[in-house]
Amino acid sequence: MKVLVIGSGGREHALSHKLKQSERVDEVFVIPGNDAMVNVATVVSDIKETEHDQILNFAKEQGIEWVVIGPEQPLTEGLADVLTQAGIKVFGPNQKAAQIEGSKSFAKELMAKYDIPTAEYAVVTTKQEALDYLDSHPAPIVLKQDGLAAGKGVIVAMTHEEAVGAIELFYQNGDAEVVFEEFLAGEEFSLMVFVNDDFIIPFDVIAQDHKRAYDGDLGPNTGGMGAYCPVSHISDDVLKVTNETIAYPIARAMHEEGLNYFGLLYIGAIITEDGPKVIEFNARFGDPECQVLLTKMESDLIEVLEALERKEDIQLQWSDDAVVGVVLASEGYPGSYDKGHKVYGYDGSLDYYISGLKKEEDWVTSGGRVMLAVGKGASIQEAVERSYKKVGQITSDGLFHRKDIAHRAL
Description:
The protein has twelve helices and 24 strands. It is of the alpha+beta class. The protein is globular.
């Protein structure tokens, strides 16, 4: 069969690679892709991921059997609806269901209605109300901009000054919908769940992401600076409770609400004294968790999608390897950064998943997060050493990376 991946980042590079490995797949196309994805797919760079009609026409012309949508924006803009209405199979939720990521307030209200454990919250729409709320709910406190923010619309304010700064930022253009949440202390992890309405196939392996920009979990929130799996210091019991109290109940809740969710649900969870609680839901794979989890997964992704479509239980297969991924990002990310810095040492190897490189005479940077160096090993220690060896093969005056990825596991 022919399959089409939508997106241009490292997550989509990994999805394309995983689909290419399937014995069922003859050709993988990617729209719009990036210059490095030619090692796994036919890159169709002249169509944008926002051009739904052109994507539909391309899928029809090529006889595409499955479309896998990587990023959140095409999902919240209804690309899955356009394709499924034309009879094309899509892995990725419809527009209504994608609100679980697209609207923080929608997700919180759904959790409140169905008693799914999460932080206490309030939705605040004006700056004065926000300052008043802060007086009665002092820092530490979490502020989340409603809508999509590429993983950067969350500020964890540990002091009153940081909270006021976040309020100034989020309300700088007038009234806005901002979710204020109680600060939860504990260890975070990422659980991916295949969902078809009220039927789910949860991953039996969790990953842990590093959100903060700098070593020691310091600095601003980012889209993720690295990830690893398995997270062996978080027990199987925690995963079992997370499935029982969060994964299955949210699938039933979405079914009750008539959302007809079909796709990947990302559960960002935290282990509290009261058990696991939801920090956030995403309507797609996390990035960079996707890259490390799909590297560890041995199951044929197409076979998993077709079992999911039939609501048929399938045992996911995993390698024994630990997998670690380290992000190389542009200096200044997640704030402003320059593009066009030359990058040396990248040879097209699939030890790297690329999100922000383009090919000119040399490879040059074209985004905030530029690439993920992946290492595998019999232990986390060995995987860490191998991933940092891959980092060391890349040279550029415009990149930085964290030096402590997987430190909790070590």
